[in-house]
Specification:
Layout: H1 2-23, H2 26-29, H3 37-70, H4 78-107, H5 120-140, H6 154-171, H7 193-208, H8 213-219, H9 225-230, H10 250-272, H11 279-307, E1 317-323, E2 329-333, E3 339-341, E4 351-353, E5 357-362, E6 367-371, E7 376-383, E8 388-393, E9 404-410, E10 416-420, E11 423-427, E12 436-438, E13 441-449, E14 454-461, E15 466-471, E16 487-492, H12 503-526, H13 533-557, H14 563-586, H15 593-611, H16 616-633
Parallel strand pairs: 1-7, 9-15
Antiparallel strand pairs: 1-4, 2-3, 2-5, 5-6, 7-8, 9-12, 10-11, 10-13, 13-14, 15-16
Helix pairs in contact: 1-3, 1-5, 3-13, 4-5, 4-10, 4-12, 7-15, 8-13, 8-14, 10-12, 11-12, 11-14, 12-13, 15-16
């Protein structure tokens, strides 16, 4: 039944990917057009349907695939089965690495019909096509698989058995009744002892899994908190420029390197040293390494915080003053000391104020009161020629994804155009544009006035900076060079902490993942009864989902002022949970489901013989099977 389940749910998964590709088509057909709200709603609903199908497909496939792979090995092939789970996990991460590299390339293709648009239909469509190919290959090899006999809806049977045991126990709670060794024994009246024993094994492992979601709560922050951390770092590796979200590729790369080393070298070496490195001990070590990874992330964050600008608090406002005049201005703001601001430049540092408004004087005959906004950074554009002051809002955080935020101020008396990465910005006199996000590197900008004169200038950009660029009235109209007349006022400095400092935390987390996750998959299979392999695999995967919920709850309920403190909090929680898990693991008794099932089969035949009598040949065959399984395990 597992093969059919994998095939059917793979079709559902593929359909979800196809629906997602179709839902993204509006990005290239409706761009810059007046689409109706109903049309947009249709695409959103289609996206939700696609995600639902993908969730249903992947949720059904994952536990079945791992269990199906384990079923391909005989009982005496524990070493080969362990190697399979390592290769299985390695293959998953190889696919993840390939997807992380290829999908952004596909998305970056030009699919626009009316304008240039990112090609999300291609990014979703190619994985759907590859899933079809994988499904065809899987079906083609069906005759070579070892297939377990169908056992009905075992999940439903387990739930019914547990429900009857609970109900029966409460039904007799006030009566004089013989005490039973385990609460599941209250199902004896309706269910056979083999099923009850199998349910006991499953519940025993599921109880052990209660602390595990905390590991995944830390692990899954690689794609959220750690990526946000990377946006405040420098990704220039010389020959290679790494974007913040691309740092996630370090994890699958390390997986590909570490899994063979751990499986072929580390574990055998530990075994030769005489140390009994059991699966639960491995998982405990993995959790500790994940906690150390977050400690490393906290140390990196502390160093990053030292390089970040000080943004205003809830009771503060910060202001810069930009002189649009042709001569230096002496500016007095509130009770602050007078400052001299050069023509077409800002003052070097933001001034901090706590009042609601600010009295600003620019020269002896020019004075005005301007409003201030709390928790905001603002720039005051002062034009002594027109005797005007205009307050504009600045950034109060680093630009996203490591880009650079650039805006342009027109200090000329006529309209100018500035070309920024194939986009023309039209700027009115004494006006300022919105911020434009520009990737790192040397970028060229072209300025054109209403007379058709052009000139260009270049800016060498790093990661995460912010600039206010002033086009002055005395601009030099030289075609390939605007000279030094364009004023580049830096509001937020570029990131100075290098992304390479994240590699130690990725190494610790990936090392923990290798000894935790691969071992957990194998442990879930080995401790599960023959007809409940997928049940325990599903339980294992459920801990991942609960881990993600924990991240949401902690993020919503606990608002810490510093990011490094949140990292330390998560590390501390995982260490505490790890101690609990280590104690639970110490008292856990490993079982051999096949041996237990063989014992019950032998006992059942003995009882059946006493009751009805059975052929001696069949009895000898059962006893022989039991003894063979027992000797294999010994």
């Amino acid at each position: 039944m597992t093969v059919q389940t994998i095939i059917y749910l793979s079709i559902v998964y593929t359909a979800g990917q196809a629906v997602m590709a179709i839902s993204a088509v509006h990005d290239i057909t409706d761009a810059d057009r007046d689409g109706t709200p109903d049309n947009m709603t249709f695409h959103v609903v289609l996206s939700m349907v696609g995600l639902l199908l993908i969730a249903l497909g992947t949720g059904g496939i994952k536990p079945c695939v791992a269990a199906f792979g384990g079923d391909q090995f005989e009982d005496h092939q524990e070493k080969q089965r362990s190697t399979f789970f390592s290769i299985f996990y390695l293959s998953i991460n190889a696919g993840s690495l390939l997807s992380t590299i290829v999908t952004p390339i596909l998305r970056g293709q030009d699919c626009g019909i009316h304008t240039q648009q990112k090609c999300y239909p291609l990014a979703f469509g190619v994985p759907a096509a590859l899933m079809v190919v994988a499904l065809i290959v899987f079906i083609a090899g069906s005759s070579m698989y070892t297939k377990a006999a169908p056992k009905g809806n075992i999940m439903l049977e387990v739930c019914k058995c547990i429900g009857f045991a609970v109900k029966n126990r409460f039904r007799h709670r006030g009566n004089e009744y013989p005490r039973r060794e385990h609460w599941m024994d209250w199902a004896d009246e309706k269910y056979d002892k083999l099923l009850i024993a199998q349910v006991k094994m499953v519940l025993k492992v599921l109880f052990l899994y209660i602390p595990l979601p905390m590991f995944w709560a830390l692990f899954d922050q690689q794609g959220s908190r750690w990526t946000l951390q990377a946006t405040t770092m420098d990704g220039n590796f010389g020959v290679l420029i790494i974007q913040p979200d691309q740092m996630q590729t370090v994890n699958p790369i390390l997986i590909l390197v570490l899994v063979p080393i751990v499986d072929s070298a580390l574990y055998p070496l530990i075994k030769k040293c005489g140390f009994n490195f059991t699966p639960l001990k491995r998982m405990t070590v993995g959790m500790l390494m994940a906690a150390l990874a977050f400690v490393a992330a906290a140390l990196v964050q502390i160093q990053i915080d030292k390089t970040l600008p000080t943004f205003p608090s809830s009771s503060q406002s910060q202001v810069k003053f930009l002189n649009l005049g042709t001569t230096p201005l002496e500016i007095t703001a509130g009770s602050n000391a007078p400052m001299t601001v050069e023509a077409f430049q800002t003052n070097p540092e933001y001034q901090t104020f706590t009042q609601e408004s600010l009295q600003v004087s620019a020269g002896p005959a020019f004075e005005q009161t301007v409003p201030l906004e709390k928790r905001k950074r603002q720039t005051l554009l002062i034009n002594p020629t027109t005797l005007t002051m205009e307050m504009v809002e600045d950034l109060t955080e680093k630009p996203e994804e490591g880009d650079n935020a650039i805006r342009f101020v027109n200090g000329m008396d006529s309209v100018v155009n500035v070309t920024v990465i194939e986009e023309d910005l039209v700027i009115m006199p004494s006006s300022v544009t919105n911020y434009t996000l520009v990737p790192m590197g040397t970028r060229k900008f072209t300025v054109t006035n209403d007379l058709g004169q052009t000139c260009s200038f270049s800016m060498t950009l790093g990661f995460g900076s912010s600039f206010t660029v002033v086009i002055p009235s005395n601009l030099q109209w030289v075609e390939d060079n605007c000279g030094n007349t364009v004023q580049q006022n830096q509001d937020i400095e570029r990131n100075s902490m290098h992304m390479a400092w994240q590699i130690p935390q990725y190494f610790l987390m990936t090392s923990g993942e290798v000894v935790f996750s691969v071992t957990g998959l194998e442990f879930s299979y080995s401790q599960a009864p023959s007809n409940m392999k997928s049940v325990l695999q599903a339980g294992w995967l459920f801990t991942v989902a609960v881990g993600n919920i924990i991240v949401l709850l902690v993020a919503e309920l606990i608002h810490l002022p510093d990011q490094w403190a949140e990292y330390v909090l998560f590390a501390s929680l995982l260490v505490a949970v790890c101690v609990v898990f280590a104690i639970m693991g110490y008292y856990y008794t490993y079982v051999d489901p096949t041996l237990i099932e063989a014992e019950f089969a032998k006992d059942d035949w003995e009882k059946e013989k006493e009751k009805n009598g059975i052929p001696m040949k069949k009895k000898e065959s059962i006893e022989h099977d039991y003894e063979e399984i027992k000797q294999t395990k010994i």
